[in-house]
Structure formats: structure tokens, C-alpha cells
Amino acid sequence: MPELLIRLSAWLAARARRPESEAGFGQARSGQVAILFAVMAIPMLFASGAAIDLGRRNAAKTQLDVAVDAAVLGVITQKTNTLTDVMLTNARTQFLADAAKVPGVTITSFVLTPAPGATQVGLTATYTATVRTTLGSMMNVVTMKIAGQSASVRNVAQYIDFYLLLDNSPSMGLAATTADIANMKRVTSPACAFACHLLNSNGTENTKDNYNIAKKNNIKLRIQVLRDAVANLVTSAKSSMSLTQQFRMEMWTFSDIQTRLIQLTSSLDQVGTAAAQIDLAYSYQDQRDSQTAYERAMAKMTSVIPASGTGVTTADPIRFLFFVTDGVQDTPIDGTMSNASSGFKINSNRFISPISPSTCQAMKNSNIRIGIIYTQYLPLYDNDFYNTNVKPFENNIGPLLKSCASDGLYFPVSTDGDINQAMQQLFSAALASVRITN
């Protein structure tokens, strides 16, 4: 159109310079100039009208593109892995309401196409519409067509059940740090790094035992650090959820007996409250030390935890066992021990050894992922029992626990290490191990 106008202008200018004998515009009296300008005004008017209508069309398309983007994102950002009919209906209603605000626009089609998958959730929306013209209607162009689309995709988030198996046997009464151990030995007689928790013969609390001495002297024990670490784990889980009720937790403590502090629940606040119950098991009056029964505990958890799922729905979650222990079982003998050659049978009902990885295999076969925090066992080289029954396998304690753990989910903690930090690292590693990428 601009090129045509330029040519017409040049032609008119040339005609205006011609002599009267050649009927130039400058001297013509026949009215040709008026007629020619009237003829030229029509395409110029049409061109101007087309420009105005094209601008209105582009403005309308921009507004509709924003509306379709908003409709798609309104669905895809919801905390769910499933796109329901209700969500799609709401998206349609939202788009049509936004489109109705655009002057002169009529929506002729709007199609939403979900793209569900095992690893991703996606949605595509396409629309067609018309926009009324103004001057274009004089050329029989009553409407102009518009079309557009928007698409979004995201990775599915996994639903996860966490089962916590926490060693609360008397050995978890060890003072938490080197400084705490020194203080514990200073305030006890005979000097002892462990806060043994005792009952009187009548079943009442022995307020003079090492456990209460530690409390009175503000000496932190491993069991207290573990309690704090679990509370902080709950806080991290609450802040990490990208789906509603994405995480559930169940919590157990064990020594030679096993106690479920809270059943599997999506109410993480209740789990945080239950964490306050984590405490040291009482030592027996007859001084039996066989109070760390791995095989009992692992067999129980194998029977409790269902096979792990895909994590895509609440009915099929991925399942983790978080196992915190000092790595040495001192256990009553229940039939035949699974790895009798790894440790020592102290008497007819007492066996001491590192863990047997075979006790973890049944859970692994069910795709249950096992994360282990090893609060490293304190060597007692001034103790004859330790030198005879533990020292021979002390170098195997950590490696065998690591063999029990799933890949990348083993975290050892030294005497001066931070159980809380290890718990946070385990949680982060657990989430990373199930994160789906494009």
C-alpha cells in the first residue's frame, strides 16, 4: 500500500508539471484533478481503516494471550499431580471471563488438552476468536481472525512416607561431645561418660542416677541431640512440601523392645509433638546390657512398612526408613543370629556384633529406601569387655551399616559431630534421590 501511494503521488506531480496543451493538471479546467483525488481517497481511506483494525486485532490478541497463559498457569501451579475435570472447568471459566472484557472479541473455540505422564504434568490450551472491524466493514471485512495457544509442563512431585527408627538404648546416653564427656566423668563417681537411666526397685525414678546427674549439670546427651534433630526434621519437611500432605511420618524408638511413638500421619505438627517423647531407655536393675536388638527392630519394620510405590499419588507413596543408631547391637538371642560369625556370643542369651546387612535386604527388595545416621560408637580402650568383645570388629561397624543403607543415604557422625546436621543432610539426600528430572 505505501509503495502504491508513492507511485500515485509521483504520477500526479508529473502530470501537474505538463503544459496545458498536454492537459497538465496545473492548467486543466476539466475537473480531472478533483475526480482523481476523489478516486485516490478511497484506497487511502481503506488503508487507514485497515491499519486501525490491524492495531485493534493485535491489541486484542495480546490480551487473549495473557488470559490463556493465566488459565494454564492457574492449573499447572496447583499442588497436585492430577489434573481434574473441576480444575479444567475452572480454567475455561477464567479464560472466558477474561476474554469477555476485551472489546469486540468473540471466542469461537477454546480447547484444553492435559498431558499426564509418569514423570511430568502438562497442559496445553488453544483458542480461536474473531474481532470486529471498524472501517474494514466498508470493504465487506466484518471480522478479523485471532488464534493463540499456551502450554506449560512441570515435573511431578513425589508423595513420601518417612518411618523413623531411633535407637534409644542405654548407649545413646553417652554425653554428646568431648567436652560433655569430660564434664560427665567429672560429676559422676565412679567417673562414667554414660548417663545410665535407672529405676528404683519399686519402679520409681532413681533421681540420683547418672541420667539425672547429667540433667542437673546441663550436660547434653546423644539422646537429647537426637530428639532436637527429629524436631528440626519435622520443621524442614513442613517447609519443603510442594504438594498438600505430601509427606507423612511414623516414629519408633527401640532398645530390646520397640515403641511406636506415633502412627503414620500427614499431620507433621503431631509428629513434632511426639518427638518430645524420645528419651533414653531405662537400664535393667540386674545390669543386663543386651538392650540393642537390631534383628528384632528390623524384622518389625519390615512387617510394618509396605512396599514402596511410584510416589505419584497419595495411595502409592515412596517409602523411606530413617535409622539412627550407634552401630553395635547387644541383643538377646532370638533363635539363630543372622551373622553369628561377625560378633561374639557372650552367654546363652546375649550376642554382641555390628549389624548384619542381610537384616535390611527384605526392605530393599520392596524398594524401601534406607537412610542411616551412624552416631559413631565410642571406643573404650580402658575397658576389658570392650577390648575383648567389641574392639575385634570395631573397624567393621561403619562399613556394615553403610552396606545396610541405600546408596547415598549413609551419614556417620563423630563424637563431636552434629546429629542435627546429619539428619538435615539425610533428608535432603532422600528428596534428591527421588526427584524426577526432564
UniProtKB/TrEMBL annotation:
Pfam families according to UniProt: Tad
Domain of life: Bacteria
Signal peptide annotation: none
UniProt domain Putative Flp pilus-assembly TadG-like N-terminal: residue ranges: 31-73
Lineage summary: Bacteria, Pseudomonadati, Pseudomonadota, Alphaproteobacteria, Hyphomicrobiales
Family matches, as SUPFAM superfamilies: vWA-like
The species this protein was found in: Methylobacterium tardum
Protein name: Putative Flp pilus-assembly TadG-like N-terminal domain-containing protein
